[in-house]
Design goal:
Belongs to the KAE1 / TsaD family. It catalyses: L-threonylcarbamoyladenylate + adenosine(37) in tRNA = N(6)-L-threonylcarbamoyladenosine(37) in tRNA + AMP + H(+). InterPro entries: ATPase_NBD, Gcp-like_dom, KAE1/TsaD, TsaD. Keywords: Acyltransferase, Cytoplasm, Iron, Metal-binding, Transferase, tRNA processing. This protein is an alpha/beta fold. The protein has 2 domains: 143 residues, ATPase, nucleotide binding domain (Nucleotidyltransferase, domain 5), CATH 3.30.420; 166 residues, Nucleotidyltransferase, domain 5 (2-Layer Sandwich). The chain contains 10 helices and 10 strands. The strands form 2 sheets. The chain has a 5-stranded mixed β-sheet, with helices on both faces. The protein has a 5-stranded mixed β-sheet with strand order 8-7-6-9-10, sandwiched between helices. A hairpin with a 4-residue loop joins β1 and β2. The longest helix is centred in the last third of the chain and has 26 residues. The chain is globular, with a radius of gyration of 20 Å. It starts with a strand and ends in a 14-residue tail after the last helix. It binds 5'-O-[(R)-(carboxyoxy)(hydroxy)phosphoryl]adenosine and zinc ion. The site of zinc ion has 6 residues, from α4.
């Protein structure tokens, strides 16, 4: 089946076409036929974060543009399914995508089935895009880390999972973005902090200071990042001459320590056969390496599929199709896994 998917939950406008064959029982294969993305990073950068109203307007401008690009490139535009992200995300942005999906469905693809998709399932299934992807790796411990979510998930199979823990306040990606602002780095902060933290500094000890790693010994699988952000704020206030690369590195280490420790503990507790990483923060090479060295088969999608895109939405819609799962076609800003 051919799936045309639309993603507009936050600040990336994506349209993708995926060709997907097979079933859950017999196995499946897929190929990406198109993957178009219009980033709004430049629009939101002056504000240091995503402005929802502005984002919807941008989606409404970008969607027809990307769709025309698809037509111009004469991709085979005969989808069996049109899928659109219905949540979680920013309500105006989700509605922008849903309205557009309904429009092109009515105008061009009325024979196709129009379905909703869960953005978090998109991230969850992004591991299928890893070069070494394999579905005989369950139970798996999956760490989903993005700008809106920090979740530790026990996946018993592709369609059966339990959320073991989540953040109590800020998501880890959100903490990267906020700390980046404190360090006067541009939005989005994650890649900027990773770059700065990796800078070699001559004459400064590598571990010149540390921030306390939040929730490291909490005994559960939950996380918390608002205190760490405040710790960085106070440190910078009290040490105006602090070296920014050292602060970035100390923050990154403190942010990742509980993630890695809890993945390790959950892997042992549930006898997991593999570890998976997804969401925008999964693009971070330092985090990838820390999880890779835990010694289990490790799955993470190539860089461009970690942050938001429509290929992962098409994947989620495909798996839902073969497992018989459906989502209502209306914006669900707080949808979970
Ligand atoms: O999944 P995503 O594109 O959007 C959401 O669904 O939230 O994730 C975006 C988040 C942002 O907070 C961004 O700063 C973070 O992912 N991010 C990173 C890196 N690349 C993106 N965080 C740390 N290191 C990175 N290299
Ligand atoms: Zn996302």
């Amino acid at each position: 089946m051919r799936i045309l998917a639309i993603e507009t939950s936050c600040d990336e406008t994506g349209i993708a076409i995926l060709n997907f064959q097979g079933s859950l029982e017999e196995g499946f294969s897929f190929s990406i036929e198109a993957n178009l993305l219009a980033s709004q990073i430049e629009t939101h950068r002056p504000y240091g974060g995503v402005v929802p109203g502005l984002a919807r307007r941008e989606h409404e401008r970008n969607l027809p543009m990307l769709f025309r690009e698809l037509e111009a490139k004469s991709f085979k535009l005969e989808p069996d399914i049109v899928a659109v992200t219905v949540g979680p995300g920013l309500s105006p942005c989700l509605w922008g995508g849903i309205t557009f999906a309904e429009e092109i469905h009515g105008k061009h693809f009325s024979k196709a089935k129009l379905v909703g998709a869960n953005h978090l399932e998109g991230h969850l299934y992004s591991f299928l895009l890893a070069e070494n992807a394999d579905v005989s790796v369950f139970p798996a411990i999956h760490l989903l880390v993005s700008g809106g979510h920090t979740m530790l998930i026990l996946m018993r199979s592709l369609v059966d999972w339990d959320v073991l823990g989540e953040t109590r306040d800020d998501a880890v990606g959100e903490a990267f973005d906020k700390v980046a602002r404190l360090l006067e780095l541009p939005y989005p902060g994650g890649p900027e902090i990773e770059k700065l933290a990796g800078k070699r500094m001559i004459g400064i000890r590598r571990k010149s200071f540390e921030f306390p790693a939040p929730m490291l010994h909490s005994g559960d699988y939950n996380f918390s990042y608002s205190g760490l952000k405040t710790a960085v704020l106070y440190y910078l206030r009290n040490n105006p001459r602090a070296k920014k690369p050292a602060v970035a590195r100390a923050f990154q280490e403190a942010a990742f320590a509980p993630l890695v420790a809890k993945v390790k503990r959950a892997t042992e507790e549930y006898g997991a056969k593999s570890i998976m990483l997804s969401g925008g923060v999964a693009a971070n090479r330092v985090l990838q390496e820390k999880l890779r060295v835990l010694g289990h088969p490790f799955f993470v999608a190539p860089l461009k599929y970690n942050t938001d895109n429509a290929v992962i939405i098409a994947l989620a819609a495909s798996v839902n199709q073969i497992s018989g799962k459906e989502y209502r076609l209306e914006a669900q800003p707080n949808l979970s896994l």
